[in-house]
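Hey all, sorry for the wall of text incoming. These are the two entities for the joint prediction.
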Amino acid sequence: MTMQLFSAFFTVLVGVGGCLAYFWGSNALLDVLLPVSARNDDRSIRNLRLQSTIRPWLFLLPALILLAIYLIYPVFQTLWLSFHDKAGDAFVGLDNYRWAFSDTGFRTSIFNNFLWLLVVPAACTFLGLVIAVLTDRIFWGPVAKSFIFLPMAISFVGASVIWKFVYDYRGEGQEQIGILNAIVEWFGGSPQVWISMPFWNNFFLMVILIWIQTGFATVILGAALRGVPEDTLEAAVIDGAGPFKIFRRIMVPQIMPTIIVVWTTITVLVLKVFDIVLTMTNGQWDTQVLANLMFDWMFRGGGDFGRGAAIAIIIMIAVLPIMVWNIRQANAERKGGH
Amino acid sequence: MWQRIRLEPSRFALHLAVLLIVAMWTLPTAGLLVSSLRDKNLIATSGWWTALTTTVRSVQTRTKDASAQVEQDGVFVISGNLFDGSEEGTGTVAAFGTRVAKPDEFAPGSTASYDDGRSLTVNADGTYRYTSPVKFEEGRGQRVFFMTSVPPRFTTENYSNVLFSQGIGRAFVNSLTVTIPATIIPILIAAFAAYALAWMKIPARGFMISVVVGLLVVPLQMSLIPLLKLYNASGFLSKTYLGIWLAHTGFGLPFAIYLLRSYIAGLPRDLIESAQVDGANDFKIFRRIILPLSFPALASFAIFQFLWVWNDLLVAIVFLGTEPDKTVLTYQLNSLLGSRGGNWEILTASAFITIIVPLIVFFSLQRYFVRGLLAGSVKGG
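and here's what came out:
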């Protein structure tokens, strides 16, 4: 154990130190190679200009290289692989995509992903909005929000263990140790095996992600609601609008941009959801989703990279509209501000 | 006054509604924590919400064997305590019996007689006296069934078990080894890049910012296969800490650059220009002015990245592999779920160990976390 701690500490030191060394070293090297003296001679001015041309690239270089290797190159490589066979050698055209749409596993995944996309972002946004409005009116609201926010810190795997325990099933007649079945029995129902219940088990898995992400929606939407100008609310009250009408007609339209941001952020997350399905069911009982299916094909039987890549591309296509929208928003904002 | 009275029921309903929601959000985690501290037999037989109540349980044990007998006044006696060697150690006998079907046949203090003249007396504290007119011969003790009330009892032995016997302790150190550099390295790299993209004169700056924003939402799945091939071909990155640090750095960079750039771009222009007039170069400005002033944004990102890396499973499986000496907590927990699916004492304690660090980070630095969320998400809102 001590040996392991020591080597861990050493490894950490080397990793972080190497990174620091690059920035300090390269900048110091630049100062040495192109010296700038206090005398404003031609050489100093020329060196200063050279320095300010080169230095930004010293700052940017590690980031650009990493982004290129880890995100940009893979996008093109995955696209290329999706048109090739399992080892990536022979060109097979659209075969992987044709396979995908005729495969029952893939069809189940697409259907389930569709369900997830329909339910999870909507549920999180709705619950987040309701909780933000409710907690804003009580003195212990911040504490309540902390508790609802807390699952955001928990890993998907940890959350899956927590919920697997909630869904735990013991045969009828035995004492239930999962709280859900205990509640069902308390109300006179009979215990169920929740995670293998066809179709509905998808929703029991979605509950986990909703449980994790509602805090995120609450915080963001709560901040936006507090930014709604008081005078519009007062005007509505004077006009005799009830609380529900104010909420629907005044508050929601004013924070619509934020609602869209929350919705799209959770949508992107849903498309990538993998850990929950892997941990809870590993795709059994018709709960498969695209991200887990892709992982499956990456490693199954030595791995079929062509099919895995095709599934990844399909996930990417689903994300694409959100990506374009984000870039346009960011550009508009940048032109408006800095 | 009437208005106040009229409002009260709705105020009450509001408090109740929020209380109910909070309960729904915390009960699952509470169940995990409570269970991880309970005795493993209790976890398997009663709900965690009964942890504070006394439960009655039927236990089966044996008396000591013939070697423990002593002769007293012409009868052979084996005496001892039913709780010796049982998992509870101590307890109260509520009833006992000689047959499995009737563990509550006799009240404590009374004597049960067997057909062959033997008799068994069990007291409430578990002490028993087993007597026979002839010498005991059999190698094993007599079977005894009894009902015992188990008082609420909490233990930390689940934790010591998983930490040292189930590989969770080692995985904890591995998780730290992965997480700390994978948090610090992207902060450094992104902060430099963010400053360059915010304040330095470079061609195609707008284009690069757009690319970063676009990369924010690229699914990890797009990168897995090409990088796996690349790592396998390179040799020195495959299944190493360096490989996974770089992977986490690459995947975390778009958000880091995006978050830090918008913060650094918002710093006052005068500050930077006056430093330039004083002859400071950009490296000096960055170290002396930008870094200290950006502390809130750096802290926000650090928390995000820390949580993301600590909680990650996918990147760890693909780039660090599944060799036992390098597995991280999330992987270890996932594999325990497969191999120890029914052993809730192991799963709950392991799960709690995996979530305790993020929870501490989260609670102590919640302010920065929320600030980062707001800065990262509310675009133009």
